[in-house]
Amino acid sequence: MAVSAPVTLCPSDSRSLSSALVSSRSNKPSSLDAVRSRRLNLGDSARPISTAARMTCFAKKQHIAAVPLCTLEAKRYEPIVKMCGITSAFDAEMALKAGAKLIGMILWPKSKRSIPLSEAKEISRVAKSYGAESVGVFVDDDSSTILTASDSCNLDLIQLHGDSSRELLPLLWKNNRIIYVLNADEDGKLINAPPSEEYVLDWFLVDSAKGGSGKGFNWEKFQMPTVKSKNGWLLAGGLHADNVHEAASALKPNGLDVSSGICFPDGLRKDPKRMCSFMSSVKTLNLL
């Protein structure tokens, strides 16, 4: 077996044997002295087995596996998932058990998924108990409304939709963690521009022209603009278990935002089966 890189000997790894080590052994059992003097036939860079390693291996009756010092594994592309439009603590817990890392709540009264602050506070508490983060979604609200809700519900992130809310960025960004929404039309062209680069935000989120509608946009034509963000960007807009692989493959966002795609037909309650199907699709992504 040709080895071009240095190797390290891992006595704690009993699951596999180096083919070089296996091939170097005869069919007869090796004596302890023979094992002490054995060297892996891996070139000048190979290291002898240390006394400590031999003692550990023989004490535990384990084999020694030779592995590269720097094992290169395929990098799995697995964006984080934000499940939005959560309307109850029960649905929040289902989403968290499925694997969501961001829990979004609509705090805009005109939305059918809007919830009172008392419910949002409880959802936020549940999210934190799972080590996830809560997101309050605001559409064209004033700063007083946004800050009051954020404090009352103990929100981790504020998501700004609509021109009026986005115009408040200079007032909000220093003391709050922000998800800034960019909207794209059906052809994948941005409707609104990102803010000045002086604002380094937590996340950008790209959604269809009408967020929460369950409609997407042309992923193949869309090009993410250059923005400054601490965590990257989230893709939203009509995602569900059957198309998330295509969308993520085309755009490779840092996160995925799903709402309508995990709902029961009423568009309000979350369907645990659809949640799990969506997460299963996300976990199959392996884009280098």
UniProtKB/TrEMBL annotation:
Keyword Isomerase carried by entry: yes
Keyword Cell wall biogenesis/degradation in annotation: no
Alphabetized GO MF terms: phosphoribosylanthranilate isomerase activity
Pfam families, alphabetized: PRAI
Domain (N-(5'phosphoribosyl) anthranilate isomerase (PRAI)): residue spans on this chain: 81-278
Keywords: Amino-acid biosynthesis, Aromatic amino acid biosynthesis, Isomerase, Tryptophan biosynthesis
Domain of life: Eukaryota
Similarity-based family: Belongs to the TrpF family.
HAMAP family recorded: PRAI
Protein name, entry field: phosphoribosylanthranilate isomerase
